[in-house]
Predict the 3D structure of the following.
Amino acid sequence: MNAHKISFDVFINELSKDWTCIECSFCVDDHSNYQLCWLGKMTIGKADSICYWYGLVEDGSQAYDFPTMDAFINAKVFQGKSIKDIWGLISFYCFNGCDVEEWLRRK
């Protein structure tokens, strides 16, 4: 599985879109604990609240939900650092069900 980099601005732009659900798989380069991670955004409940989430390890012990994008990108869930702090180490496998390279060609 090939992993690809995307810019932080592209990532934030996609999270900002009015989509019901976004789901992405990614890794943190050269970090053995974070080789197949997931993140996303979904609508929950009848009030259409938004939930941003991480699933960082397979056993579910590092699963986190956040009510806002700001809380999500600034949460210190990667051993005391946020996704924003370590963005240069984030590589995506798929973005919303598409291979990242294919998804980027559509942009």
Observations:
- Strands lie at 21-28, 37-44, 49-55, 63-66, 90-95, 98-99.
- Residues 8-16 form the longest helix (9 residues).
